Amino acid sequence: MQQRNDPAHVVGIDYGTLSGRAVVVRVDDGAELGSAVHPYRHGVMDTNLAATGAPLPPDWALQVPADYIEVLQHAVPAAIRAAGIDPASVIGVGTDFTACTMVPVTKDGTPLNELPGLQDRPHAYVKLWRHHAAQAQADRINELAGQRNVSWLPRYGGLISSEWEFAKGLQLLEEDPELYERMDHWVEAADWIVWQLTGNYVRNACSAGYKGILQDGAYPDRDFLAALNPDFSGFVSGKLEHPVGSLGSAAGTLSEQAAAWTGLPAGIPVAVGNVDAHVCAPAAGVAGPGRMVAIMGTSTCHVMNAEILRDVPGMCGVVDGGIVEGLYGYEAGQSGVGDIFGWFTAHFVPAELTREADDRGMSVHDLLTEQAAGQEVGAHGLLALDWQSGNRSVLVDHELSGLLVGLTLATRPHEVYRALLEATAFGTRTIVEAFTSSGIPVTEFVAAGGLVRNRFLMQIYADVLGMPISVIGSDQGPALGSAIHAAVAAGAYPHVRDAAAAMGRVHRNEFLPDSERSQAYNALYAEYTALHDYFGRGGNDVMRKLKAIRRSARLVREVSA
């Protein structure tokens, strides 16, 4: 560790789905001294375009990039004030972002939606990670990759997601070719925000590898892209390819403009961008192999390091140095977790339960959890599939949808709520078993993210997995992870592993499985697996057919209007 004047601080900025959070962290020990959150003014546009009110098609999810700048202007100064530190003591900044979240921009980084006359064009806006409207393009990419037996496909579990860079880029080309031509760069939001902070555009190795199909130093070639669409042949060379920075290195230094936004000193190092889930691993002190970190929020991302390269069915990717240098970083995930719980409480809870929660000064989530915790495993007679946002791992199919089996006239809301909690745990067990059976054993399961505050949910996960669950020792895992990378970029530590050991923290074996409940869940999990394979592996395509019928019905309505 280099000499420095103490105390030194770093700032981590975490861009989530609905808001951005800044955290001030002490470099020596990772102590979090102050934080602030700023919600995105336009939120997520998934039904209507904010600028015009025009309806959006199904499965779209857009955002306004100017909202990300407001996080720098509001959350960072507020976090500095909350920490009570001198801004001059900040030696570095790190950021992370949801992924894959894509911004179409001009040569100087201006988002297309900010150009005159383009505010009414949906494809001019940010495509959020949960934009799933490029499934048809993803299907074609997967079909062609399978036909050609390309070397990179197994690195992604055999399937490319509709959430990722190529599928979304192909959708943009085919649905708005004029905008595609006007776009100079197709940029991950993780890299765009660093560009705004430094004036330098540097691709980060994490997004490029996991979301951009960069394997062994190469992207899919022109011939492959031309076979998808002749006008797509130059996508990599003309829109996507750019110098890639390693994680923990500096992308540049804070510009005068960004210093004015944030109140931080101009000229301090800004770390190469990163993905919110992957950057969370060092925050939990995880920089070695075998320990899976599950970042549990609106969705769940599962990341882990390993010393060996293996093909894991349905994984989102394996990238050399994708989490820390010197190890293979693996990723899997569930597209909907907290989103599913929120959807249920928003639309299917009767007014009397909402009033009861209000009267008792608790959230509806807490009330349903309290009621559900009083039941024995299986007493509700229900089983659910956790696919309300499609399936990311292990099926990689966003045409799939949710399912609930066992409803009767006696079923109560808290019972459905518990079945949904359990379904997400079953989905995680499916992922863990896929890794273990592929020769990448999961030796420890570490939970992070907002959902770890629900202790009943965490106990369900321990019982379903049949293994202890450790919990990250921070409520701001991604922001702390970004701060750790900022410390490395600033030269305070030589490697992310060293910074993680000093600044990260975890509470080991916080939740232990109960053997009787685990046995009961084994029986339910067997039935979950049967439903999972029947609806997810071609036994019945009703979910895809229903989505097609829905799209047709909406199209008829729009034409009629």
Automatic annotation (TrEMBL):
Q: What is its EC number?
A: 2.7.1.16
Q: Example GO molecular function term?
A: ATP binding
Q: Which UniProt keyword terms apply here?
A: Arabinose catabolism, ATP-binding, Carbohydrate metabolism, Kinase, Nucleotide-binding, Transferase
One term under GO cellular component: cytoplasm
Query: One of this protein's GO BP terms?
Result: L-arabinose catabolic process to D-xylulose 5-phosphate
Major enzyme class: transferase
Q: So which residues are the signal peptide here?
A: none
**Coiled coil segments of this chain:** none
Domain Carbohydrate kinase FGGY N-terminal intervals: 10-278
Q: Which InterPro entries match?
A: ATPase_NBD, Carb_kinase_FGGY, Carb_kinase_FGGY_CS, FGGY_C, FGGY_N, Ribulokinase
What are the Carbohydrate kinase FGGY C-terminal domain coordinates in residue numbering?
293-490
Has UniProt tagged this entry with the keyword Calcium? Answer: no
Query: According to its UniProt record, in which pathway does this protein act?
Result: Carbohydrate degradation; L-arabinose degradation via L-ribulose; D-xylulose 5-phosphate from L-arabinose (bacterial route): step 2/3
Gene3D superfamilies of this UniProt entry? 3.30.420.40
Reactions catalysed according to its record: L-ribulose + ATP = L-ribulose 5-phosphate + ADP + H(+); D-ribulose + ATP = D-ribulose 5-phosphate + ADP + H(+)
Keyword hit for Kinase = yes
> Which NCBIfam families is this protein grouped with?
L-ribulokinase, PRK04123.1
Q: Report the sequence similarity comment from the record.
A: Belongs to the ribulokinase family.
The identity of this protein, by name, is Ribulokinase
